[in-house]
Amino acid sequence: MAYVDGFVVAVPKAKLDAYREMAEHAGAIWMEHGALSFVECVADDVPYGTLTSFPRAVQASEEETVVFSWITYASRESRDAVNAAVMADPRLKETTEQAIFDGKRMIYGGFRRIVDL
């Protein structure tokens, strides 16, 4: 069953176009190295919750929006191999040199699918 890496990050609204360009560049690298899909979504209906919410989770300010992303792979083993190849790819460094968002507030992790309809 496919494997998924998920991400949530706060992006300055003023830098959203730059983030999209960075994500398109990085996504092409992931896909070239074997990812099955690479998806980036910007917040549209994510209210600030009383206890928890996407904006709270990444400490988003009024000047920021939330981006929710995921990358899919054939398996955990495929994900590990793809990520190793991506991290060794010098083109990724070109993408990550830009300080578009605060990576310290990024939430990320790998997930096994348990339902896939």
Give a quick precis of the structure.
By secondary structure, this protein is an alpha+beta fold. It is 35% helix and 27% strand.
Helix vs. strand class: alpha+beta
What share of the residues lie within helices?
25-40%
Shape: globular
Stretches where pLDDT is under 50 for at least 5 consecutive residues are none
Helices and strands, in order, run as EHEHEHHE
Largest sheet: 4 strands, antiparallel
How much of the residues is beta strand, in percent?
25-35%
Please tally the helical runs, counting DSSP H or I stretches of 4 or more residues.
4
Mean pLDDT: 93
| Radius of gyration based on Cα positions | 15 Å
Number of strands: 4
The largest sheet has its strands arranged as: 2-3-1-4
Head-to-tail CA distance between termini: 12 Å
Protein name: RNA signal recognition particle 4.5S RNA
Organism: Methylobacterium jeotgali
InterPro entries: Dimeric_a/b-barrel, DUF1428
Pfam family, one: DUF1428
What this model shows, in words?
InterPro entries: Dimeric_a/b-barrel (IPR011008), DUF1428 (IPR009874). Pfam families: DUF1428. This is RNA signal recognition particle 4.5S RNA. This protein is of the alpha+beta class. Helix content is 35%, strand content 27%. The protein contains four helices and four strands. It has helices spanning 16-32, 54-57, 76-88, 90-96; strands spanning 3-12, 37-42, 64-73, 107-112. Strands 2-3-1-4 form a four-stranded antiparallel β-sheet. Helix 1 (16-32) runs antiparallel to helix 4. The protein is globular and about 40 Å long. The mean pLDDT is 93.
